[in-house]
Design goal:
376 residues, Arc Repressor Mutant, subunit A
Length: 376
Amino acid sequence: MSIIGALVLTSYFLYHWKANHKANLYLGLFLALVSMNNIYFLLGHQTNVLLDIPYLIHAIDGLRLLWGVLLYFFVEAFTGKQPLQKRVAYLHFVPALVAVVYFTYTLLYLPIANASSYTSAILQHKPVYYQWYWVIVYFSNVAYLMASLLKLGKIRLGMNNTFNDLDKKRYNWLFTSIIGLAVIHFMIPLIYKTLSSHLFAFLPIFVVALEGVWLWKIYQDAAIFEYQVEPTPKSAEENNRFSATYPTLESAKQALNSFFVEQKPYLKPDLNIRMLSEAFGMPSYQVSQVINQGFEKNFFDLVNHFRVEEAKARLLDKQYKHLTLEGIGYECGFNSKSSFYAVFKKYTQQTPSEFRKNTLEQQSDNREDLPNDVGS
């Protein structure tokens, strides 16, 4: 069941990988790795295949270090980032590459006469170096899980302000799933009170429960995993342009910035990427590309940036003096006092009231410091 579920999910997410800026690609590869591990587990513990073909014993061992990497990259892409946009990100793959080279070297220089006994020892996790390798894999997975949870936790703090209902479903599903994986890979060994490498090989089997939940969610509400994607240009001439309207990414960025400044779409509390793309007249995947690569932000960071700038201007404008601080927050697109204060302080390191007081005092001091004959 675990193998079938993982293979079905792998096929689904790899088929839909273009729908969410490669997030589904990373998730599909992650589930493919889970499938390979479960197949390997079946061959090693339920059949004699690995004993008959001992040189397959390390077929996926080096790849186990990619488990946490692919999961973290999935979370990064799911939240609007481009995980491999910077070269330094490729360092995440170095440990897995080193492990693959090491295990390949070990097998290449393994005498044929010792192959069967070596394979049997590996299946029983007897070699000390192999036990330590599993410990490294374990802590690597836990580290990436914790990093993923921290990233999602920060986003959830501003969820009520910037997310529509579908976005909330997506992030709640993802956060719950990561919690489930953390329990499986972190809490189970603690419950067993051991870091024995024997246990680690069984951990991916427990993922079958999450696979069942994911399959049910796809059946029940596939929109959580799918985004509307418009077709890309086909001709060579069009492919050399960023879009039919804008020749370069920079020109599209300038146009989108002007649109935000002039049209103020961020004043709508329920603004999402689809609404913005329809109003701006550009496919949603290209709008996301402009925001991620041009502004080097995700959608919610960009929207909150403009909302905070708008709030700063209105806090100092006498035209809005009759409004409370909370009222200004609502008018700038925030849908609660708490979210307004939290986001405003994140961007300015001050509360709205502190910003207004400090800025007005500074302006007053500057006027007092002017010479008496200025303006005469």
